[in-house]
Amino acid sequence: MRDLVDIGMGRTARRTFELDDISIVPSRRTRSSKDVSTAWQIDAYRFSSPILSHPTDALVSPETAIELGRLGALGVLNGEGLWARHSDVADKLAALADIAENDPDPRVAVRYLQQLHAAPLNPELLGEAVAQVRDAGVTTSVRVSPQNAQQLTPALLAAGVELLVVHGTIISAEHVSADDSESRAPLNLKTFIADLDVPVIAGGVHDHRTALHLMRTGAAGVIVGYGSAAGATSTNEVLGIGVAMATAIADAAAARREYLDETGGRYVHVIADGDIHTSGDLAKTIACGADAAVLGTPFAAACNAPGRGWYWSAAAAHPSTPRGALLEIEAGEDRPSLDKILNGPSDDPYGELNIVGALRRSMAKAGYSDLKEFQKVGLNVRA
């Protein structure tokens, strides 16, 4: 039964919970972490850890996508980012980091980011970036927005993309518009997905009903959340739209069960994206029912992150309504490698290194041997 509270006369709201509001309850059984698997598979693609990168230029270049793939995670290129618009991306990002570091007004860096994204999309440049990842032998994944999916997908398919991510801050299965001046017809996800030979991950969604609708489009995975990170994203401040991640994940997992029964066995993966900054956040995300999670700020600390220690979401470059500033990630002088962030060893007591190892240990302490089992672990709500 939903917990509704009165917020005024004749107006109620649902009480929801963030990841910080809950904790995992160990069972009577424990096991060795060596006997635990964190492997995750979507369609034909299997990964040793249930982790995707947020599709932002701050984190993912062709080189870091390759490195993440070799480490067992999935690096998702931003198909509408700088690698699809400029040939000298490293120089552009160096200039952006210099502005963010030296100008106290955060709007200056956002304006420069908007300027960089004002350059036209170049499918040839994007194809070269995708081909570089493909030729390295790791799974190739690219994010496109619903607005540009039909325009960019042919070039991505020609370049060898294997997993397509149709991702926006907020997405629905059907876009309704009364504006006859729109340059492109609204994307119908169901027909779009049906015409493709590659699996599609779509999102973000925030509630049970929309998650179920997206599952019915034929998506292989549904992203829950909008990549929130305190100080870096401000969808709540700009649009007044927010989502409590623990509740949103549990609602989407319920939609997954409903769709599984509805179709007689078609399983759609739930992928959480938002407020996941530590290994404990990752463990609670899986415990709430997610199959995998999107990480943003943890990867920004890496020594080879393209953002040079700065993090921003893909929505930060919106030309008229940017949702997010550049966030400096504190990592000390010696920034860790992606391998250390994922697999350790760690000397960090706050869960920002050895993220996969800590997830494995959490699962072992609770007595579960794989991710599907761990979704059944007990949870507490903090008073």
From TrEMBL:
GO terms for biological process: GTP biosynthetic process. Residues 19-310 form the IMP dehydrogenase/GMP reductase domain. Keywords: NAD, Oxidoreductase. SUPFAM superfamilies: Inosine monophosphate dehydrogenase (IMPDH) (SSF51412). GO terms for molecular function: IMP dehydrogenase activity. Pfam families: IMPDH (PF00478). It comes from the Bacteria. The keyword NAD applies. Belongs to the IMPDH/GMPR family. This is GuaB3 family IMP dehydrogenase-related protein. It comes from Gordonia asplenii.
